[in-house]
Automatic annotation (TrEMBL):
Boundaries of every Glycosyltransferase subfamily 4-like N-terminal domain copy: 16-198
A single MF term (Gene Ontology): glycosyltransferase activity
The protein's name: Glycosyltransferase WbuB
Native organism taxonomy: Bacteria, Bacillati, Bacillota, Bacilli, Bacillales
Transmembrane segments: none
């Protein structure tokens, strides 16, 4: 099967960002014998810089997997330049896609909806099935997080959202909340498939001897209890409350944040103004190396803003921490909290609550070694059941095969 995947924010594992589609594509190429073209931006959203030739040379060559890098307009924050960034990627995807051979299935991933719309247009011209993946609920997220108020923009995005749901041959969602949301739009439940994020099991092996080295790289003492966050530093992540928790911690506890984003400068100012010597802000690191940092920490952090739109979030950090076997402190109520508590792998600290976060850290620090080992095992069991990317890739490939065959029958 020839598959196209378009995701403006996709990256290979050596870059910071969303590796989901690269990992799915690799699995389909190596295990299913597919030919996959991944369309992705040469402007890295996480780093706010263009991907260099050196970065590209470091990507492992996988026969059958083509990376099609598309230029998109650079931006540094959520302003008009980012809108141009989205438009430029979607437009170039459509234009360059016109001159490529026909795929058997075309997948376009949100956000944003413009990539989905370009994908649908190309699928019509190429006469192939269109699969729309929903990773973020637009325009709901923009309205509830960014305060989008322009009625014309809201009307246009709402129309486009409904249009893509109706026209897609298959809709892929990442959380149960998203499945229910799309279904409530009047979409046939049989058309919607839940394929959550996950982990490439076997892609990393623990090495306890590295703990001291990575503690040193984090700038924390060997004997400190360390809670670590690895991911985006944007308004949606509400990290200022995590940083402020440093005021309420004992002297032998530290918080480490790894990543980048528009809120990072603000977080640095908070650290400096409050004199928080127990909070470290580090630059992004490659996906494979993140696991060594997580291994060197004592707990993992999941933080999002106290907003109903995030009640249905299931971020990849959830799987990262369980994969490495670390207990989780989550500030996110809803689906993440349910998974953490039902599987007994961590603590809900309360939303946007620095003191509650500090109390959760202290509670985990005082947890027995036997219980921490049990938490690690329960996390790995969850990954095996619901977060093994190889299994999820095979499940999605079966769905794509069904979509392709259905299209062939309808065309006869």
């Amino acid at each position: 099967m020839r598959i196209w995947i378009a995701n403006h924010y996709a990256v290979p594992p050596n870059l910071g960002g969303i590796t989901r589609h690269y990992e799915l594509a690799r699995e389909w190429v190596e295990e299913e014998g597919a030919e996959v073209t991944l369309w992705l931006s040469s402007f890295n959203h996480s780093r706010r810089t263009f991907v260099t030739d050196k970065d590209k040379q470091e990507i492992e060559k996988v026969p059958g997997l083509r990376l099609r890098w598309l230029w998109s307009f650079p931006h540094a924050r959520n302003d008009a330049r980012r809108v141009i960034n989205m438009v430029s990627f979607a437009a170039l995807f459509f234009l360059k896609g016109l001159f490529q051979g026909r795929p058997d299935v075309l997948i376009a991933s949100s956000p944003h909806l413009l990539t989905g719309f370009s994908g649908w247009l190309l699928s019509k011209l190429k006469r192939c099935p269109f699969v729309f993946e929903v990773r973020d609920l637009w325009p709901d997220t923009l309205i509830k997080m960014d305060g989008l108020k322009n009625p014309w923009v809201i009307k246009a995005l709402t129309w486009m959202e409904s249009f893509l749901y109706r026209k897609a041959d298959k809709i892929v969602v990442l959380t149960e909340y998203q499945r229910k949301f799309v279904q409530q739009k009047g979409i046939d439940p049989e058309k919607i498939s839940l394929i959550p994020n996950g982990i490439v099991v076997g892609s990393w092996e623990p090495d306890p001897s590295l703990k001291s080295e990575y503690r040193r790289l984090m700038g924390v003492p060997e004997d400190h209890y360390v809670a670590l966050y690895a991911g985006a530093h944007g308004p949606a992540n509400a990290l200022e409350y995590v940083v402020k928790a440093g005021e309420h911690l004992p002297d032998d506890m530290s918080i480490v944040l790894i990543g980048d984003g528009p809120e990072k400068a603000k977080l640095r100012r908070i650290v400096e103004e409050k004199g928080l010597t127990n909070v470290r802000l580090l630059d992004p690191v490659p996906k494979g190396e993140v696991y060594n940092y997580i291994q060197a920490a004592d707990a993992g952090i999941i933080s999002l803003a106290d907003n109903e739109i995030f009640r249905g979030a299931r971020p990849n950090k959830l799987f990262d921490y369980m994969f490495v076997g670390k207990p989780i402190i989550t500030t996110v109520d809803g689906e993440v909290r349910e998974i953490v508590e039902e599987n007994q792998v961590g603590i809900f600290s309360g939303a946007e609550n620095p003191e509650g976060f500090a109390r959760a850290m202290i509670q985990l620090r005082d947890t027995s070694r036997e219980e921490l080992d049990a938490i690690a095992q329960r996390g790995r069991n969850y990954i095996d059941r619901a977060g093994d990317r190889k299994k999820l890739a095979h499940q999605l490939y079966d769905e794509l095969t069904w979509v392709e065959k259905k299209a062939e029958v309808e065309a006869q």
